Amino acid sequence: MMIQEPCNEILCAMKLYSNVFAPSPRRVRMFAAEKGVTLEIVNLDIAKSETQGAAFLALNPMGDVPVLVLDDGTTLTESLAINRYLEALVPLPPLLGTTPLEQARINECVDHLMFRLYVPTTHAFRHTHAFWNGRVTQVPAYGDVAREAVRAQFAWLEARLADGREFLIGAGFTLADIVAYTSVDFAKIVGLRADATYPSLQAYQARIAARPSAKA
After folding, report:
1. How does DSSP classify residue 7?
2. N or C: which end of the chain has fewer CB within 10 A?
3. 66 upstream amide cis, omega within 30 of 0
4. Any residues with CB less than 8 A from the CB of 75 and at least 6 apart, and which?
């Protein structure tokens, strides 16, 4: 991992509202760690509705994390938008590609993973997990359908990684790997794991988990 030193004052002044377990802010923390960018982290407890308080809703009316607050008070929401902003500020190491085709391939994979893996995982979580009981109207049958969609994407990743490639796109680690790793890891919450059924995916998850950024 390349460390950017000394720390730029603008980067040092940025504050990230996060949650220890949620995958969306984790994507930002991993991305920033890969860039060598140290953010001030403010962890909120979603279970205690800390993202629904008036002070936080003033930052993000949607009541979701992550939220990046810049030194001048400007706020950015949505993990992919925040990561693209960080990429523009700190181009090296490149996590979103350096050529038009590479950038398109990374975005293609990210979009695929977000819509076909991450979103179904969140639906399975909301509709089948006890955490959401009483918080939302749960439709367990829909959660089961979402769980099957997640399994299908595990199979898709297994097939993509079966050729022995180290990363999803090209020879280097990218945002696509962050999205894949955090989404597959998050699926554990609905009882889905990259186990021996998916040997290439299991090995891939272990490789990414060994990166220092995975602990961010």
Report:
1. P
2. N
3. yes
4. 59, 60, 67, 68, 69
Question: Rounded CA gap, 185 and 195, in Å?
Answer: 11
| Confidence bin at 11 (pLDDT 50/70/90) | low
CATH number, domain 100-215: 1.20.1050.10
Residue ranges per structural domain of the chain: 9-89, 100-215
Residue 151 pairs in a beta bridge with: none
Per-residue pLDDT, 185: 98
Under 8 Å between Cβ of 17 and 56? yes
State whether residue 164 is helix, strand or coil: coil
pLDDT in tens, 34-60: 999 999 999 999 999 999 999 999 999
CATH superfamily of the domain spanning 9-89: Glutaredoxin (3.40.30.10)
